Amino acid sequence: MTSTSTRRGATRQRLYEAAITLIAEQGFSATTMEQIAERAGVAKGTVYYNFGGKTELFQELLRQGVAPLTAGLRAAAQGALAGSGGAVDALDGMTRAALVFIAANPDFTRLLVAEQWRTNRAWHPTLTEVRHQLTGLVEEVLQQGVKSGELDPALDIELTGGALVGMVALGALEWLAFHPARSLDEVHAALSVLLRGRLGGGGAA
């Protein structure tokens, strides 16, 4: 990698971080390119040079931000399924992996959750794509659980997958906003009770 590409990568990273913080604080519409540039410590033209506009920046921000989360979820699921665990164990491992990510990236998580409701945005297809990456991983594990007989074959996989992703995301935000003194282990244990109580009872769904 050349020094020029290294510098550009560092600049883009600063812009990502500035945009995430500002949009999480005040929303997409209220955040301007000038504010992003100022927070990142670059000229306004640098933002346009790297991304073209705010919508393009936000789309790339979503894709880059969710990549380590999907990687962590996939690794957690594969680790559980490769051992002696079943689908519920895999989902529990994914829950913990998600909490670790959210604790390290609270602004991105708030942004991701808040902006899902704004369905009239130009970038909503990108947000839908990102969401499907997350729910798709959960749905794959649910399907394996149904196939193995661990989970009820009547389980609505699509709705259950979305509900589990929402449970973890909102549960984590509740933790960070209102119970910050609680440990990650405590939050994971609470969500694990909900998960196992609903899916882990021999196929109850």
TrEMBL record:
Residues 9-69 form the HTH tetR-type domain. InterPro entries: Homeodomain-like_sf, HTH-type_TetR-like_transc_reg, HTH_TetR, KstR2_TetR_C, Tet_transcr_reg_TetR-rel_C_sf. Keywords: DNA-binding, Transcription, Transcription regulation. It holds the Pfam family TetR_C_24. One of its GO terms (molecular function) is transcription cis-regulatory region binding. It comes from the Bacteria. Residues 32-51 bind DNA. The keyword Transcription applies. Transmembrane segments: none annotated. PANTHER family: HTH-TYPE TRANSCRIPTIONAL REGULATOR RUTR, MYCOFACTOCIN BIOSYNTHESIS TRANSCRIPTIONAL REGULATOR MFTR-RELATED. This is TetR family transcriptional regulator.
